Amino acid sequence: MVEIVFVEADGEEITVDAEVGEPLMRAAKNGGVAGVVAQCDGSMACGTCQVYLEPDWYQRLEDPSEIEGDLIEFSLFPRETSRLSCQIPVVAEMEGMRVSVPEAQL
Ligand code: FES
Which atom of ligand 1 is nearest to the CA of 40? Predict the structure, then answer.
């Protein structure tokens, strides 16, 4: 298991145990992170699983696909380090990673 800390918009921190290989979105949902809505359940059709990565993690990951980029562009409160958490598989190196959640997704 990999411990990942989600920071809700109100500052509440929720530490979740994620499985290697599962999408970051799934770990957030299983851990009760309210700010990750994930309306389409990972079909990359909603953009409501947006999270903000720390800059170093944003750079370490592969660039978002064109579709993901479009969804982020039309999501609420996008930032430079926004990603869709359903598109990010958990890896062991993410142990202790902090991920922030937008103040609203819908
Ligand atoms: S869950 Fe809908 S785009 Fe990620």
Answer: 2
